[in-house]
Specification:
Elements lengths: L7 E5 L4 E6 L8 E6 L4 E4 L5 E5 L3 E5 L5 E6 L14 E4 L4 E7 L2 E8 L2 E6 L20 H25 L13 H16 L4 H11 L2
Antiparallel strand pairs: 1-2, 2-3, 3-4, 4-5, 5-6, 6-7, 8-9, 9-10, 10-11
Protein name: ERIP6 protein
InterPro entries: FAM194_C (IPR029281)
Organism: Sylvia atricapilla (blackcap)
Length: about 210
Amino acid sequence: YPSGNVAIIMTGDKDHHSLIVQEDELRTTKIRALFQSDGRSTCYYRNGDEWINMSTQGGQYLDQAGNRVRRWMWPNLSPEPHVPLSPIFISLNRHVGVRILAQDKIFVSFLAMGRQAKFNMGTRVQVSAGSQLPPAAQLGEDELLLLAFRVRILQLFDRMRGCINFPSGEQWNKMQPPMYLINQAVKILELCMAADISDELRSSIKAIVNA
């Protein structure tokens, strides 16, 4: 910064790197934003509250009261994402701005004394292998049931977040689950059709993920 305080720190190597934006304060350790090459990033308000949070699935934008203003999914999860991203621009302070245009176009700009530096911290990251479903040939009845219950539990957690963000119930009742959960529910049903299981169990799993 013009004050002499450190504004931006880059760490890591060619395989993984991070960018940290610090506040313009003397001897500060206050972080205003953290961007990582694995697709995870967070921006904070000046008081330390979360402003924007992004992952390999998508992101959300919160106001200063903690209410979710916007949520989106990256198009790498589906040719037709449930909630696409509308471009976002925020100013962390008078010198540092963040522009979010796409998963691989997340720009951090620093402007001071007539000079500018721009960093693209976007990346095209697919959902990790740990969140993918295994092939049908490796799954038995117990495994299919566990996967179905896992998706159902994640759906319930998402509805709980909706209840907290929209206490009136008028809006969260209409909200659909995140696209990655919808995709996993569909994949489980496809695995059930391919697996050697009874029609009764297949119907039970369908009821669990579609409840």
